[in-house]
Amino acid sequence: MSAYPLVSLKLATSLDGKIALANGQSQWITGSEARAQGHKLRAEHDAILVGSGTVLADDPTLTVRLPGYAGPQPVRIIADARLRTPNDGKLAHSLDVAPVWIFTAPEAPGDRKNELKKQGFDVVSVPEGGNGGVDICAVLSALARRGIKRLLVEGGGVLAASLIRAGRVDRLEWFRAPVILGADALPCVAALALRDLAAASRFTRVEVRQLGDDLWERLHRRKT
Ligand SMILES: NC(=O)c1ccc[n+]([C@@H]2O[C@H](COP(=O)([O-])OP(=O)(O)OC[C@H]3O[C@@H](n4cnc5c(N)ncnc54)[C@H](OP(=O)(O)O)[C@@H]3O)[C@@H](O)[C@H]2O)c1
Which of 7, 10, 15, 26 to mutate to test the pocket of ligand 1 (most atoms within 8 A of CB)? Predict the structure, then answer.
């Protein structure tokens, strides 16, 4: 068994690399063809991971919604150290469609833990990460132990930065819309505090496709 799942990071950005306006609005940066491809990607993965910021901002369902699709639904996974996932959001209302695993910190409020468990969420404690949140490598190895081989990470920028800092992004699925959102919008990858270009994560472009007005780029991490 591999120690970690294969991690693909999917982002839908503007030309200037933003994923949402400063007020959190991000639906929809890309067009319908790119979004349909996003659903196909979900269908090819065992699980989808997002940060709690995305759950709070977007109230996503994170299911595969393609016409005629009858295959398995990926497990939905939230990195949520403070257990802020709402009890009455779309994830809670779709627990019969696919499970939701919430990875939280040992210090998360016990009453919230019980409440969410009672509702049907699977709440898993892992150590805290060095920069706050949960230890992302601990989450990935727990996922591998639970049989997750292919993980699609759908943002947001804070979670993306954590995974890149940890060197755990194997592939990028990058959707780029011909729109400019400006410096006050949210970056697709939060601060990495790099001091040396040689230390930056580099990727090789393996496929580029136009989807409506958008571009879809698939990239693989360079080994050296
Ligand atoms: N266009 C796109 O592709 C796209 C995709 C997704 C989201 N978005 C937009 O992005 C915005 C949300 O993104 P965001 O960057 O603010 O939030 P985010 O990355 O979704 O979530 C960040 C939160 O996740 C929790 N977390 C737990 N463990 C973590 C870890 N190891 N590393 C990082 N985070 C961890 C932390 O909260 P706790 O400490 O409370 O756990 C952290 O504040 C929304 O506006 C949404 O609409 C756009």
Answer: 26
Q: Is the beta carbon of 34 within 6 A of some atom in ligand 1?
A: no
DSSP H or E segment with residue 34: helix 32-43
The residue whose CA has the least distance to atom 13 of ligand 1 is 156
Q: Which CATH architecture has domain 6-221?
A: 3-Layer(aba) Sandwich (3.40)
What's the pTM? 0.97
DSSP of 145-176: HTT--EEEE---HHHHHHHHHTT---EEEEEE
How high is the pLDDT of residue 224? 67
Query: Per-domain residue ranges for the chain?
Result: 6-221
- Residue segments in the chain with a per-residue pLDDT below the cut of 70: 224
Q: Is 60 in the pocket of ligand 1 (CB under 6 A)?
A: no
> How much is the pLDDT for 6?
98
